[in-house]
Amino acid sequence: MRSQAIWHPAALAVYIRLEFYMNSAAAKGLLRCSGSGPYEVYLNGERVGRGLGPAVAEVAMWEQFALDVALREGENVLLVFAIGCGTADWFRAEGKIERSDGSEQVLYTGAPWQVQPADAWGPASYVAVLAPAEWTKGRFAGWREAVVVDGAEPRDWSPLPAVESMVWAREVVAFGEVASEGALEWIASPEAMQTAKCVRREAFLTGGKTHSLVQATDEARAAYLVLDFGRLLCGFPHMRLRGKAGAVIDLGFARALGTVESRLRYVCRDGLQEWTAPQLATCRYLVVRIGSCPGDMEIDSVALVERRVDVAARGRFTTVGADWERLWRTGEQSLADSRQEVYALGEERLNWDQLYVWAMNDLSATGSVDTARAVLAGSEIPIGGEQACFHALFVELAQRYGGDRLTAERLAGIVNSLQTAEGASATAAVAVQAGAWLAVAALCRRTGDRQLAVQCERAHHRARKALQAAWNEEQGLFADAVGAADCSRWTNALVLYFDLANPKQQVQVARHLSSGSASGDDLWQAFFISGALWRAGADAAALAYVKRKWGRLLARPGRTWGEKAESLAVQPGPESLLAAHVLGVVSKAEGVLEIRPQLSGLERAEGVVPTPHGDVEVAWGAYGGGFSARLSVPHDGETHLSVPRCDKRFPQIEINGETVWRNEKAHPNFHVQELISEEERVVMVLRRAGQYEVSVA
C-alpha cells in the first residue's frame, strides 16, 4: 500500500485530518510528508513539524517528523494545515507507528483522510475570526472525505535538522501615522500621530517583558512603525497580542531601505492570540501598520521565528596581521547565515556557479558535505549552458568529499547535460565546459566506467584545443569569442582557473589580471580571478588581489560579506582559496591528499583544513631564504607533501630531523615512500598518519 496525494476540490489552503486509535502504548512513530506548498503538522494539538515545500527544494521532497512525544493510547488526531500555490495543489503523508507490543500501525494519505477549506487563509492574509476554535486539535465540524489528486512523487533526502529561535528587532527606525487604506508601502517620514497612538513602542523590541498599547480611532488612519532587525534574516512572522475582532495588522517585508517586497495581513479576533505565519519571509526591515482599532490593543510581541541549520566550524586560517582572522570569521558567518537545508536565504536560490563556490567554502570552513548533498537531492540536472557545467563541477566536489557512490542514471544525466552544452561560441563557456568534462571524467573513474572516462577526457582536450583559436597574440589575452576584439577579465580568469593556458599564456594573462582595475569585479567574479592567479603560480599577486577585494570591506559595518558589500544577495569569501593555496591542502581524486603551500609573499601562515580523511593542521614559515613547516597528517593513505626549493639550486630537505633530499638525490627515510623532483618544488609521498616537521635549507 502506498500513499495517495490528496486535497480539497476547491481551496487554496486546507485542513487535513486523520483520526486513529491506539489500543496499546506506542514505542515510537515517524511520519514523512510532502506537499505543493508549506504546511504544519499537529498531533493531538502539539506541533510536530513544519514543511517548507518549494522554499527549500525545487522538486518535491519527503520531510520526516517524529511523533513519539505526542502519541497516546486511545484516540489520536493528526491535523495538517497546508497552503497551496493555487494550481494542481496536493499533500501526501506516510507514517509508521511501532507499538510497545511489537506490532505496527501504518498511516497513508488517501480515502480515510478528511479535508476542509481553511477559510481563515487567503492570498497573503489570515483572518483569525474565521479560524475554527482550537483548530490545532482538529475537533471542529465541516469535514469531508479527501479528494485524491495527481501529485508529484517526492524524493528522499536526509538534510541536517533545522532549529528555530525567536528574533526581535533591534530598533524602531520610523514611527508615526499613515493612511490605513491601500497597499502597505515604505514611508520614511510618516506623519506625527494624531488620531492613532502607540504607547511604549520599545515593547516591539522585546518579548514577554512588557507590551505596547496601540489604538487607531479613525478608520482612515493607522499607526505605523518600521522595525530594523540589524541584519538580513529568514523566518516565520510571529505575533502575540490581546486584540479586538476586526483590528488589522499589515506586515511588510523589506530587505533594504525604501522598498516593501512582500506583504502579509492579519485580521484579529477578540482576546489573547498568538500567531505564526506558515510561510517563510526574508527581510531586514519589518514594516508594521495597525488600523481599524478604536480601542486599546495590547501587543506583546512582533518578531520573526528564525530558522537555521547549525554546523560547527572546524577550519581556521591566520597569518601576519589581525585582519586575516577577521576575514575568515566573516566567511564563516556568511556561510552560517545562508544555510537552511540547502544554501539559500529564504526563497532566493543560488545558481550552480555560486553553489559551487559556496560548497567549496563550506568544506574548507566546516568540512561538512551534508548541505551539498541536500542541494543535489532537492534539484534537477540543468540541461545545457554554463549552469550544466558548474552543476557537474559541484557533483564531483560533493562526491570527492562525501564519498557517495554516484548512480549510473545520474552520471548519464550529467554527461547528457554537458553534451547539450557543447558547441558554445563564447570562450568563457568553453573554458567551463573543459573544466566540467575533466571533473566528470574523474566521476567516471570512481564509478569504474573507464571507457566513459576516456570519452570525457577527449571532450576536455577538444575544448582545450578550441580555446587556442581565441588567443589574441597582440593583446596577450584570450578573446571573448574567436575573432572578437574584447578580452574580458571574466573570460581570462576562467581560462586560468581551469588550467587551460600554456605556460607563456599563463604569465601574460596573470599579469593582466593582477594589474588591471579590480573595482568592477563583484565578489563572485573576484573569487575566480584570485583562484586563477593562484593556479597560474602568481601567488603573491593573488593574495594582493584578495586584500584589495575583501580586505577593504572589513572596516565596513555588517556581519557577512553580503552586508559589508551592501548587497541584498549573499556574497562569498575567499576561504577555500586560502585553504587550498596558502595552506596548500587539497583532497584529490582516489583518496590522495595534497599539501602544497604557496608562500604568496607571506613570512608565515597556519591553520586547520577539514578533509574527508580528517583535519589537517599546517603551520609554515619562510625566513632567511629557507622554509619550514609543522604538519599533522590524519590518515594512512597517500599524502603528497610538496615543498618549495626557495630558489636554491641544491636544497637540503629534512623531515623529522632526518635528511631526505640533498645534492638532488633522495636519501632513504622511514616516512617517505617516494620523492619527485620538480623545477621549483620537491614532492615527498607519505603513507602514514602522524606529526611531521619539514625544513628546506
Architecture blueprint of SSEs:
Blueprint: E1 6-7, E2 13-22, E3 26-35, E4 39-43, E5 46-51, E6 63-66, E7 74-83, E8 91-99, E9 104-108, E10 114-117, E11 121-122, E12 125-127, E13 144-145, E14 147-148, E15 163-167, E16 171-179, E17 196-199, E18 212-216, E19 221-243, E20 248-254, E21 262-267, E22 271-276, E23 281-291, E24 293-308, E25 316-319, H1 323-337, E26 344-345, E27 348-349, H2 352-365, H3 370-377, H4 385-402, H5 408-421, H6 427-446, H7 450-467, E28 471-472, E29 477-478, H8 489-497, H9 503-515, H10 523-535, H11 539-549, H12 561-564, H13 575-582, E30 585-587, E31 593-595, E32 604-611, E33 614-621, E34 627-633, E35 639-644, E36 653-655, E37 658-662, E38 665-666, E39 672-677, E40 681-686, E41 690-696
Parallel strand pairs: 12-21, 31-35
Antiparallel strand pairs: 1-14, 2-7, 2-10, 3-6, 3-8, 4-5, 4-7, 8-9, 10-13, 11-12, 15-24, 16-19, 17-18, 18-24, 19-22, 19-23, 19-24, 20-21, 20-23, 25-32, 26-27, 28-29, 30-31, 32-33, 33-34, 34-41, 35-40, 36-37, 36-41, 37-38, 39-40
Structural description of this entry:
- By secondary structure, the chain is an alpha+beta fold.
- It has 13 helices and 41 strands.
- The strands form 8 sheets. Strands 11, 12, 15, 16, 17, 18, 19, 20, 21, 22, 23 and 24 form a 12-stranded mixed beta sheet that branches.
- A hairpin with a 4-residue loop joins strand 28 (471-472) and strand 29.
- Helix 2 (352-365) packs parallel to helix 4, helix 6 runs parallel beside helix 8 (489-497) and helix 10 runs antiparallel to helix 11 (539-549).
- The radius of gyration is 30 Å and the shape is globular.
- The mean pLDDT is 93.
